[in-house]
Amino acid sequence: MRRLLIAFGMLLLAPLTSANSVWDDSTLNKILQRGELRIGIETGYMPFEMRDKNGDIIGFDVDIARHMARAMGVELKLINTAWDGIIPALLTDKFDLVMGGMTITPERNLKVNFCDPYMVIGQTVLLRKGLADTVTSYRDLNNKQYTIVSKLGTTGEIAARRYLSRATILTFESESEAALEVRNGRADAFVFDFPYNAIFIAENPEGLVHLDQPFTHEPLGWAVRKGDPDFLNWLNNYLAQIRGDGTYDALYKRWFESDRWMKDVNR
What we know:
Residues 36-259 form the Solute-binding protein family 3/N-terminal domain. By secondary structure, the chain is an alpha/beta fold. It has helices at 2-25, 27-34, 60-72, 86-91, 106-109, 155-163, 175-183, 194-203, 229-244, 247-256, and strands spanning 36-41, 50-51, 57-58, 75-80, 97-98, 113-114, 119-121, 123-128, 147-151, 168-172, 189-193, 208-211, 218-220, 223-224.
Protein backbone atom coordinates (compact mmCIF):
# COMPACT_ATOMS: atom_id res chain seq x y z
CA MET A 1 0.00 0.00 0.00
CA ARG A 2 2.81 2.39 0.91
CA ARG A 3 4.44 1.82 -2.47
CA LEU A 4 1.13 2.51 -4.21
CA LEU A 5 0.71 5.79 -2.30
CA ILE A 6 4.25 6.87 -3.17
CA ALA A 7 3.71 6.01 -6.83
CA PHE A 8 0.41 7.89 -6.84
CA GLY A 9 2.05 10.90 -5.25
CA MET A 10 4.77 10.89 -7.88
CA LEU A 11 2.15 10.86 -10.62
CA LEU A 12 0.49 13.90 -9.07
CA LEU A 13 3.79 15.75 -8.83
CA ALA A 14 4.89 14.95 -12.39
CA PRO A 15 2.65 17.57 -14.11
CA LEU A 16 3.79 20.21 -11.61
CA THR A 17 7.43 19.38 -12.25
CA SER A 18 6.87 19.54 -15.99
CA ALA A 19 5.05 22.88 -15.71
CA ASN A 20 7.86 24.33 -13.59
CA SER A 21 10.41 23.17 -16.16
CA VAL A 22 8.50 24.89 -18.97
CA TRP A 23 8.30 28.12 -16.96
CA ASP A 24 12.03 27.96 -16.13
CA ASP A 25 12.78 27.73 -19.86
CA SER A 26 10.40 30.55 -20.82
CA THR A 27 11.98 33.67 -22.27
CA LEU A 28 9.57 35.71 -20.16
CA ASN A 29 10.89 34.13 -16.95
CA LYS A 30 14.49 34.70 -18.05
CA ILE A 31 13.74 38.38 -18.78
CA LEU A 32 12.28 38.81 -15.29
CA GLN A 33 15.23 37.04 -13.67
CA ARG A 34 17.73 39.04 -15.74
CA GLY A 35 15.93 42.32 -15.12
CA GLU A 36 16.45 43.30 -18.75
CA LEU A 37 14.44 43.03 -21.95
CA ARG A 38 16.69 42.67 -25.01
CA ILE A 39 15.15 43.71 -28.31
CA GLY A 40 16.70 43.29 -31.76
CA ILE A 41 16.15 46.10 -34.26
CA GLU A 42 17.87 47.64 -37.26
CA THR A 43 18.11 51.43 -37.24
CA GLY A 44 17.34 53.35 -40.40
CA TYR A 45 13.72 52.27 -40.95
CA MET A 46 11.83 55.52 -40.43
CA PRO A 47 9.69 56.06 -38.44
CA PHE A 48 10.00 52.67 -36.73
CA GLU A 49 13.62 52.93 -35.56
CA MET A 50 16.32 55.47 -36.38
CA ARG A 51 18.99 57.59 -34.71
CA ASP A 52 18.54 61.18 -33.63
CA LYS A 53 21.20 63.87 -33.83
CA ASN A 54 22.63 62.74 -30.50
CA GLY A 55 23.05 59.17 -31.74
CA ASP A 56 20.19 57.82 -29.62
CA ILE A 57 17.74 55.33 -31.12
CA ILE A 58 14.20 56.69 -31.43
CA GLY A 59 11.00 55.73 -33.25
CA PHE A 60 7.59 54.10 -33.04
CA ASP A 61 8.91 50.62 -32.24
CA VAL A 62 11.35 52.11 -29.73
CA ASP A 63 8.59 53.88 -27.81
CA ILE A 64 6.58 50.65 -27.68
CA ALA A 65 9.70 48.79 -26.51
CA ARG A 66 10.23 51.28 -23.67
CA HIS A 67 6.60 50.98 -22.62
CA MET A 68 6.81 47.17 -22.81
CA ALA A 69 9.88 47.10 -20.57
CA ARG A 70 8.13 49.32 -18.02
CA ALA A 71 5.14 46.97 -18.06
CA MET A 72 7.53 44.10 -17.24
CA GLY A 73 9.32 46.13 -14.59
CA VAL A 74 12.72 45.63 -16.26
CA GLU A 75 15.38 47.66 -18.07
CA LEU A 76 15.42 47.90 -21.87
CA LYS A 77 18.39 47.03 -24.07
CA LEU A 78 18.16 47.74 -27.81
CA ILE A 79 20.53 45.69 -29.97
CA ASN A 80 21.12 47.12 -33.43
CA THR A 81 21.56 44.23 -35.88
CA ALA A 82 21.92 44.00 -39.66
CA TRP A 83 18.59 42.93 -41.16
CA ASP A 84 19.87 39.90 -43.04
CA GLY A 85 21.24 38.47 -39.78
CA ILE A 86 18.48 39.47 -37.38
CA ILE A 87 16.59 36.14 -37.36
CA PRO A 88 19.79 34.05 -36.89
CA ALA A 89 20.73 36.39 -34.02
CA LEU A 90 17.32 35.84 -32.40
CA LEU A 91 17.67 32.06 -32.76
CA THR A 92 21.08 32.13 -31.06
CA ASP A 93 19.69 34.12 -28.11
CA LYS A 94 21.39 37.44 -28.86
CA PHE A 95 18.09 39.06 -27.85
CA ASP A 96 14.58 38.11 -26.73
CA LEU A 97 12.48 39.29 -29.65
CA VAL A 98 12.67 41.17 -32.94
CA MET A 99 10.75 44.43 -33.04
CA GLY A 100 11.78 46.02 -36.31
CA GLY A 101 8.77 46.36 -38.59
CA MET A 102 9.13 42.73 -39.66
CA THR A 103 6.55 41.44 -42.12
CA ILE A 104 4.98 38.11 -41.19
CA THR A 105 5.69 35.71 -44.06
CA PRO A 106 5.30 31.93 -44.35
CA GLU A 107 9.04 31.59 -44.98
CA ARG A 108 9.98 33.49 -41.82
CA ASN A 109 7.28 31.72 -39.85
CA LEU A 110 9.05 28.41 -40.52
CA LYS A 111 11.94 29.71 -38.39
CA VAL A 112 10.25 31.92 -35.79
CA ASN A 113 6.85 32.53 -34.25
CA PHE A 114 5.04 35.86 -34.53
CA CYS A 115 2.73 37.64 -32.16
CA ASP A 116 -0.57 39.02 -33.46
CA PRO A 117 0.03 41.71 -36.14
CA TYR A 118 0.53 45.18 -34.68
CA MET A 119 0.22 46.96 -38.03
CA VAL A 120 -0.63 46.16 -41.66
CA ILE A 121 1.27 47.88 -44.46
CA GLY A 122 2.14 47.17 -48.10
CA GLN A 123 4.73 47.82 -50.78
CA THR A 124 4.58 51.02 -52.84
CA VAL A 125 6.78 52.55 -55.54
CA LEU A 126 8.94 55.66 -55.61
CA LEU A 127 9.24 56.47 -59.29
CA ARG A 128 11.69 58.59 -61.22
CA LYS A 129 9.71 61.70 -62.14
CA GLY A 130 10.56 61.45 -65.82
CA LEU A 131 8.45 58.28 -66.00
CA ALA A 132 5.32 59.84 -64.50
CA ASP A 133 3.46 59.92 -67.83
CA THR A 134 4.54 56.41 -68.80
CA VAL A 135 4.23 54.46 -65.56
CA THR A 136 0.98 54.75 -63.62
CA SER A 137 1.02 51.37 -61.86
CA TYR A 138 3.65 48.99 -60.50
CA ARG A 139 2.59 46.59 -63.28
CA ASP A 140 3.98 48.98 -65.91
CA LEU A 141 7.46 48.47 -64.46
CA ASN A 142 7.51 44.78 -65.32
CA ASN A 143 9.64 45.46 -68.37
CA LYS A 144 13.28 44.77 -69.19
CA GLN A 145 13.86 48.45 -69.96
CA TYR A 146 13.50 49.39 -66.27
CA THR A 147 15.88 49.10 -63.32
CA ILE A 148 14.20 48.50 -59.97
CA VAL A 149 15.96 48.87 -56.61
CA SER A 150 15.13 47.75 -53.09
CA LYS A 151 16.78 46.77 -49.82
CA LEU A 152 18.45 43.37 -49.58
CA GLY A 153 16.52 40.70 -47.69
CA THR A 154 13.28 42.64 -47.31
CA THR A 155 9.75 42.07 -48.54
CA GLY A 156 10.43 44.96 -50.90
CA GLU A 157 13.02 42.83 -52.68
CA ILE A 158 10.69 39.81 -52.59
CA ALA A 159 7.83 41.85 -54.12
CA ALA A 160 10.08 43.30 -56.80
CA ARG A 161 11.36 39.88 -57.86
CA ARG A 162 7.87 38.36 -57.74
CA TYR A 163 5.90 41.04 -59.59
CA LEU A 164 8.57 42.78 -61.67
CA SER A 165 10.69 39.83 -62.75
CA ARG A 166 11.25 41.14 -66.28
CA ALA A 167 12.97 44.25 -64.99
CA THR A 168 16.56 44.46 -63.73
CA ILE A 169 16.47 44.13 -59.93
CA LEU A 170 19.28 45.64 -57.84
CA THR A 171 19.51 45.45 -54.05
CA PHE A 172 21.31 47.63 -51.49
CA GLU A 173 22.32 47.24 -47.86
CA SER A 174 20.07 50.09 -46.72
CA GLU A 175 16.73 51.52 -47.86
CA SER A 176 18.16 55.04 -48.04
CA GLU A 177 20.93 53.95 -50.45
CA ALA A 178 18.36 52.32 -52.72
CA ALA A 179 15.93 55.25 -52.66
CA LEU A 180 18.73 57.71 -53.46
CA GLU A 181 19.53 55.73 -56.61
CA VAL A 182 16.11 56.76 -57.95
CA ARG A 183 16.28 60.33 -56.68
CA ASN A 184 19.66 60.74 -58.33
CA GLY A 185 18.47 59.24 -61.62
CA ARG A 186 20.52 56.04 -61.52
CA ALA A 187 17.46 53.76 -61.23
CA ASP A 188 13.86 53.95 -62.37
CA ALA A 189 11.92 52.86 -59.29
CA PHE A 190 12.31 51.94 -55.64
CA VAL A 191 10.01 49.28 -54.12
CA PHE A 192 9.62 49.43 -50.37
CA ASP A 193 7.19 49.77 -47.46
CA PHE A 194 4.56 52.51 -47.65
CA PRO A 195 5.52 54.31 -44.38
CA TYR A 196 9.14 54.73 -45.41
CA ASN A 197 8.28 55.82 -48.95
CA ALA A 198 5.76 58.38 -47.72
CA ILE A 199 8.36 59.94 -45.42
CA PHE A 200 11.17 59.81 -47.98
CA ILE A 201 9.20 61.66 -50.65
CA ALA A 202 8.03 64.25 -48.12
CA GLU A 203 11.70 65.03 -47.52
CA ASN A 204 12.76 64.61 -51.17
CA PRO A 205 9.90 65.92 -53.32
CA GLU A 206 12.08 66.88 -56.27
CA GLY A 207 12.57 64.28 -58.97
CA LEU A 208 10.25 61.64 -57.50
CA VAL A 209 6.66 60.45 -57.80
CA HIS A 210 5.03 58.20 -55.21
CA LEU A 211 2.71 55.51 -56.53
CA ASP A 212 1.17 55.32 -53.09
CA GLN A 213 -1.39 52.55 -53.54
CA PRO A 214 0.07 49.48 -51.79
CA PHE A 215 0.15 46.43 -54.05
CA THR A 216 0.86 43.88 -51.30
CA HIS A 217 -0.78 43.05 -47.97
CA GLU A 218 1.83 42.81 -45.22
CA PRO A 219 1.05 42.36 -41.53
CA LEU A 220 3.90 43.33 -39.21
CA GLY A 221 4.62 41.30 -36.08
CA TRP A 222 7.14 40.83 -33.29
CA ALA A 223 9.19 37.68 -33.79
CA VAL A 224 10.13 35.24 -31.01
CA ARG A 225 11.79 31.86 -30.85
CA LYS A 226 9.58 28.81 -31.31
CA GLY A 227 8.43 26.64 -28.42
CA ASP A 228 7.70 29.50 -26.02
CA PRO A 229 3.91 29.84 -25.53
CA ASP A 230 4.26 31.81 -22.27
CA PHE A 231 6.14 34.67 -23.93
CA LEU A 232 3.89 34.68 -26.99
CA ASN A 233 0.81 34.78 -24.75
CA TRP A 234 2.20 37.72 -22.78
CA LEU A 235 3.04 39.68 -25.94
CA ASN A 236 -0.40 39.15 -27.45
CA ASN A 237 -2.12 40.22 -24.24
CA TYR A 238 0.18 43.23 -23.93
CA LEU A 239 -0.63 44.28 -27.50
CA ALA A 240 -4.37 43.94 -26.85
CA GLN A 241 -3.98 46.05 -23.71
CA ILE A 242 -2.15 48.98 -25.35
CA ARG A 243 -4.61 48.94 -28.23
CA GLY A 244 -7.49 49.11 -25.77
CA ASP A 245 -6.16 51.75 -23.38
CA GLY A 246 -5.12 54.32 -26.01
CA THR A 247 -1.34 53.88 -25.70
CA TYR A 248 -0.96 52.46 -29.20
CA ASP A 249 -3.09 55.19 -30.80
CA ALA A 250 -1.13 57.95 -29.06
CA LEU A 251 2.19 56.56 -30.28
CA TYR A 252 0.83 55.99 -33.79
CA LYS A 253 -0.30 59.63 -34.03
CA ARG A 254 3.08 60.83 -32.78
CA TRP A 255 5.08 58.95 -35.40
CA PHE A 256 2.73 58.53 -38.37
CA GLU A 257 0.42 61.53 -38.26
CA SER A 258 2.96 64.20 -37.29
CA ASP A 259 6.30 65.28 -38.74
CA ARG A 260 7.61 67.04 -35.64
CA TRP A 261 10.09 64.24 -34.99
CA MET A 262 11.83 64.74 -38.35
CA LYS A 263 13.82 67.74 -37.10
CA ASP A 264 15.52 65.48 -34.54
CA VAL A 265 16.55 62.71 -36.96
CA ASN A 266 20.18 62.33 -38.00
CA ARG A 267 20.13 62.35 -41.81
